[in-house]
Amino acid sequence: MAKAKIALIGGGNIGGTLAHLAALKEFGDIVIFDIVEGLPQGKALDLAQSGPVEGFDGEFKGTQDYKDIEGADVVIVTAGVPRKPGMSRDDLLGINLKVMKAVGEGIKTYAPNAFVICITNPLDVMVWALREITGLPHNKVVGMAGVLDSSRFRLFLANEFKVSVEDVTAFVLGGHGDTMVPLTRYSTVAGIPVPDLIEMGWTTQENIDGIVQRTRDGGAEIVKLLKTGSAFYAPATSAIEMADAYLKDKKRVLPAAAHLTGQYGVNDMYVGVPVVIGAGGVERIVEVSLTKDEKAMFQTSVDAVSGLVDAVKKIDQSI
Ligand code: TXD
Questions:
Q1: Cβ(14) to ligand 1 under 6 A?
Q2: Does the C-beta of 148 come closer than 6 Å to ligand 1?
């Protein structure tokens, strides 16, 4: 069987971690593309040199030439500038849009059959722009945020309940950012929904509200600590889970920024919703019913994303 090829566009903190995780999981050959000369080459060589110890084979290549991503099965995009302290995700809009143009052209030319996972912020609008620029089918271009946001939510809930993170499931909807909508009703400990756990006296509504807020601020909390960059271990792991679902046709049900065509009342936008990821890319959008309050929170989130899409269209009328 032919080996899969994974192209990582952006070889910074997340890109490097992605390369390491993809190698450990033996996904296949790995190409790291970055505009900084030497950076992807150095990381690729270093990674290859861990192969004999870890026991993985494969080709590892760093490059400044898009031709090297030719035929990639999965492309994960982290190229761009990360948030600095005090900077909102939206400040990144103009800078990272230009990056998406270059990246999108590269993917369109050399890897039009790939499953593309975008991570670059501001996520929901960058993935939308990247899809427009590449012209790839909507089901093959997806944004990573929900797996990360729900992983953060799961960790905080597990700490609160003093149970294993493995037994906690969490559900988040909406755009990646301050308006994301963690749905406690659909979040559980071994199938027991959080509102039931409140009734059982395991926690209080106040504590849950605090956890929801901490989840929303999860990215900023880490930016504040790191000072020179943003989170990378958890974001990389999250995107790898999505790539794994595609490569192994696992039909995982994962939250992701997906293209909506009427679901949840949203049209032609990328917003975080649960989806099924398998060999067909995004194979299905899972549409759950929402209460009035949840709908209102979701709408606020959708409005925020829609404002950014409008801003992008103004910055670059060709998109
Ligand atoms: O949940 C999520 N989606 C996110 C998103 C969680 C955390 C961080 N998130 C965003 O990911 C973050 O705001 C950034 O927009 C991206 C990448 O974060 P990372 O921490 O990896 O940033 P780095 O270390 O600065 O790496 C970015 C690399 C860097 O090496 C640049 O030289 C390169 O991108 N870069 C480019 N590569 C290719 N092509 C172009 N044009 C380019 N411009 C910069």
A1: yes
A2: yes
Going across the sheet that includes 28-33, the strands are: 60-63, 28-33, 4-9, 74-77, 115-118, 141-143, 252-261, 267-278, 281-285
List the alpha helices (DSSP H) in the chain: 13-24, 39-48, 51-54, 93-110, 123-134, 146-161, 194-199, 205-216, 218-226, 233-247, 292-315
Q: What is the pLDDT of residues 154-201, one digit of tens each?
A: 999 999 999 999 999 999 999 887 888 989 999 999 999 999 999 999
Which position has the token pair 């271009």?
Answer: 141
Q: Is 176 a catalytic residue?
A: yes
Closest ligand 1 atom number to CA of residue 83: 13
Q: 3-class DSSP state for residue 202? A: coil
- Give the whole-angstrom CA distance, residue 272 versus residue 264: 11
pTM of the model: 0.97
d(CA 80, CA 92): 9
Q: Does 34 sit in the ligand 1 pocket, CB within 6 Å?
A: yes
The confidence score (pLDDT) of residue 168 equals 98
Instruction: Compute, in angstroms, the gap from residue 11 CA to the centroid of ligand 1.
Output: 8
Distance of CA 8 to CAs 119, 154, 160, Å?
11, 27, 36
CA 5 to chain centre: 19
